[in-house]
Amino acid sequence: MGFTKLVRSNAFKPIPNFVRSSLRIACVESDQNTESPYKPRKHHILATNLIISYFEKGLVEEARSLFDEMPERDVVAWTAMIKGYASSIHNARAWECFREMMRQGTNPNEFTLSSVLTSCRDMKVLAYGRLVHGVVIKLGMEGSIYVDNALMNMYATCSATMDAACLIFRFIKVKNEVTWTTLITGFTHLGDGIGGLKMYKQMLLENEDVTPHCITIAVKASASIDSVTTGKQIHSSVVKRGFHSNLPVMNSILDLYCRCGYLTEAKRYFHEMVDRDLITWNTLISELERSDSSEALLMFQRFESQQGFVPNCYTFTSLVAACANIAALNCGQQLHGRIYRRGFNKNVELANALIDMYAKCGDVPDSERVFAEIADRRNLVSWTSMMIGYGSHGYGAEAVELFDEMVSVGIRPDRIVFMAVLSACRHAGLVERGLKYFNAMESEYGIEPDRDIYNCVVDLLGRAGRIGEAYELVETMPFKPDESTWGAILGACKAHKHTGLISRLAASRVMELKPRMMGTYVMLSYIYAAERKWGDYARVRKMMRMMGNKKEAGVSWILVENQVCSFAVSDKACPCAVSVYSVLGLVIEETREADFCLVQEAGT
């Protein structure tokens, strides 16, 4: 393998000087005198160093070509290839390289095994990981901390339980911080936050060194089980250990308060933070989008005033969702313009948020336009968002057509998609089409309808006046009907003035459930009044008064000078309430005078 062939590469320039010098020396006879300060190295060592350099530069194919030309390949060269493939996310090639190495009779070392186990973990192929585990046992490398940690990580990621990972953990004699962090992370990612916190507590009891990364995982475990009490304890230990200046740790604690619904604490903690990055701002804006969308938009204005911070796709996704929540179309359009200027318009998740925002603001044509712009990148959420938009505005035929088109391009619908198309059929009165989709869920796609799907179909039949069929469906449901189910039956009976046996049965069943929704009591009173059952009517009305049930007030939003203001009936919380009601009084007087004049003109 000559020097010229090794250094020839169109994409990898320049070759490091130490590599060039070593390669030149390798071509000189060993007995020849030289003044070079570099010590000669063997060819396979030089080639291995160059392979590592290629992988660091992302030149995977060049690394493979050089590896194939090597006449001698030791375990270090094989390990360099396997580790390089794994770090470049070419996990399948890493696995094939490991198999080739074993076939040629080269035994792996601990670094080879840890690298290939990393690839098995990333591929989430448990069978491959078990084969490597067998090699580990065969070669007697169970005691290597690198191998044991990699095995734990692989089992924690690829298995449905933590049993295998815990078994390996128990046999590790000398554990390090990576060992503990791997186990805590495994429990947390499997959704067992309690198990993760138990291991974190055990780690503290054994006086092990706690790293910032380990604390971050423990905080995530607390957030996953909504345990703000444990999170506050960890927060105190963070301050005690001097990690309060570690930004990833601080961000995880902010996320804990947000996820657990402690918004006041989250905002206070945010303002106390000395350092903030984009993740910090995104975390708070995302939580405000769910709890107070107007404040999320105001927070973004503060964000823009900060030097050095540039919003990313995640920021804009939260902001667009905030505009959708309060139907702030003008603000959403301005954000859409910024998204285009920053080149984020090709991001599918952001496009999905825009589709939903325009639909919720009543601008279906713009939803269709955004949907058309991502024709080659649509995912299941894209189709679902557009279908929900059509359905909520009564475009049932368009939603049905979109569903059929989605299926024709090979995208398999899930339960949420079926809920969207069935809701569209319900609002548009497409009963037969809706029943067709309902029957196809289990027969064609193997999806069992849940309670919400059944309630939707009951409402679909009830709205069409097919109350008998709706009641039969309720009786055949695989689970006990709830208040919403009987409420749909009662609503259909009220709408179609049905006062027969079904309305009485539905009324008795819903009373047995002790309904909590105000609308259910109202429909019951209407049913009893229609049947002239004044005693039952009075009893329902009395129950409503005794329980203190009040219908949820409708809220409206208005955009004034780029600020969203909300108001309800008899709302006096507005700072300008006196002026508003004064102007409203003048409008009422003007209306009365206008009506009086019209009456006089009609009389003459």
UniProtKB/TrEMBL annotation:
First and last residues of every PPR repeat: 74-108, 246-280, 379-413
GO CC annotation: cytoplasm
Matching InterPro entries: E_motif (IPR046848), PPR_At4g14850-like_plant (IPR046960), PPR_rpt (IPR002885), TPR-like_helical_dom_sf (IPR011990)
GO molecular function: RNA binding
Keywords in alphabetical order: Repeat
PROSITE patterns in UniProt: PPR (PS51375)
UniProt-listed GO biological process terms: RNA modification
Coiled coil stretches, renumbered: none
Protein family (similarity comment): Belongs to the PPR family. PCMP-E subfamily.
NCBIfam families per the UniProt record, alphabetical: PPR (TIGR00756)
Protein name: DYW domain-containing protein
UniProt source species: Brassica campestris (Field mustard)
